[in-house]
Amino acid sequence: MTDAPAAAAPIPAIAPIVVVPADPQAPAGGAPDAGAAGPAVVDFDAGQNWQSEVYPLKHPFKFAGVTYTSVTIRTPSGADIANYVSGKATPLDFAIQLTGLDSTILLKLHAADYKAITKAALGFLA
């Protein structure tokens, strides 16, 4: 009696990838179909900016009559990243650019919150 190798499991079918060409009639920067979800166009001319995230502080504080419970960090622009990578901006400068907060406020943060905020800002460089 010989040992025959076990039959290989069948390979599952994979759905084909369908590439849909862009609609030449769609408005520039818009989604090809009004019902289709696509990335939002950021209109800098209208004062819009990239997305931002709110980071709740683990250690809220009050300074100069203002209570700080969270910090909002916006997504950096190419210029923000270029300044940091070129050495023109320190991690603190980079965090100031992305939060819009004065260095005095950022330096008042509890160490755990400061570390989380700067880590989030520098995370965009990864």
UniProtKB/TrEMBL annotation:
Pfam families in UniProt: Phage_TAC_7
Protein name as catalogued: Phage tail assembly protein
Taxonomic lineage of the native organism: Bacteria, Pseudomonadati, Pseudomonadota, Alphaproteobacteria, Hyphomicrobiales
